[in-house]
Design goal:
Order of helices and strands: HHHHHH
Structural class: mainly alpha
Largest sheet: none
Low-confidence stretches: none
Oligomer: single chain
Mean pLDDT: 89
Number of strands: 0
Strand content: under 5%
């Protein structure tokens, strides 16, 4: 007699994620209205969520703050987010793994608010 045991999902703890659920369109609107100052705040809060999802410090707070002020650090922020943090978020949400680092890097150079919208859309899937 074969007995099949099913993995129960209700008692598996999820990482203690800080709640930062914002509509991606609002990230764009607030970024434009504040001439990019909102993105400094957004970088900090998104880095907290990505670090919690990864289970380690992927993006430090100083990098998140400076990413809103300095273009090369901004590009580094989006590269690391796409390379190390978003795959962990995809794993937690059960999405197929994909590497969006190049897309986020290119969009971060020309339209940083659009890169932020993409990341925020993926972060929001953690709370559904």
């Amino acid at each position: 007699m074969n007995e099949v045991t099913k993995q129960e999902e209700w008692n598996n703890p999820k990482p203690n994620l800080p709640v930062f659920k914002v509509d991606p369109v609002l990230v764009l609107i607030f970024g434009i209205l504040t001439c990019g100052l909102y993105l400094i705040y957004w970088n900090i809060k998104a880095a907290e969520v990505m670090n919690a999802a990864a289970g380690k410090e992927v993006i430090s707070s100083p990098v998140a703050i400076l990413a809103g002020c300095c273009m090369p650090i901004n590009l580094y922020y989006y590269w690391v987010a796409g390379k190390e943090a978003l795959p962990k978020i995809y794993e937690l949400t059960g999405q197929p793994q994909k590497d969006e680092s190049v897309l986020l890097l290119i969009l971060g150079f020309f339209f940083p608010m659009v890169s932020a919208m993409i990341i925020q859309g993926d972060i929001n899937k953690l709370y559904n």
